[in-house]
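Field reference: "sequence" (input) and "structure" (output). Example, ABC transporter ATP-binding protein:
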Amino acid sequence: MKETSLPILTARKLTLAYQGNSIVNELDLAIPSGKVTVLIGPNGCGKSTLLKGLARLLKPKIGTVYLNSVSIAKLPTKKIAKNLGILPQNPIPPEGLTVRELVAQGRYPHQTWLQQWSSEDEQITEQALLTTGMLEFADRALNTLSGGQRQRAWIAMALAQNTDILLLDEPTTFLDLAHQVELLDLLCELNQTRGRTIVMVLHDLNQACRYADYLVVIRNGEVYTQGIPEVVITETTIKEVFGLESKIISDPVTGTPLCIPLSRRSRP
């Protein structure tokens, strides 16, 4: 397991709210640079809200988010878009957009009045389509694709943005198991070969343990615990955070923690 490094994205005393109701409460968090960080926790605990706060999609009620030690609130939107890409839950595209047109939108932050589209933009767009297996669907309208295909198209757009940081909210949604593994392998490859900092929300604890360098467990809008999976994932954590009895064993393939949930039927 790789050691954690200096933070690239930091939250200090961060409180996030919807219509006055606080979802994230005075949260402190440092995202290590060049690592894969996974946020886990039960439904409604604040994972997605936290991701929006880190991306400046949701203005803090209290506290500050820092990007490379600079308050993200003070940075121009275009500068943020060049450094930080986000894939939210269930994004809605404009009507009639093709896959290629969607992916090309990832290049907009890199364009200027003098140069609207370049050969580099074209190359990166094509590579994003190829990497996600969407090249054959490039000229199809998004609304004609399956849920899994649309999800891969959105991921291709995030890749085309070519940022140092990628924030992904449940990126495996709508994907079958084979494509889930393919996508998570791809994200880890981007991390390992290109140094991308990846932050994602995952529901599958075993996938989180297998792919994360660093785990952050959220409970009731606060960080319950954080660290490498071998330290974070314990039977006590699963019980106190998810209200579930479990057995934690070593994954026979990767050696990372493997959570076996115990239902009433499976208990001795």
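The chain has one domain: 7-261.
The CA atoms of residues 134 and 153 lie 7 Å apart.
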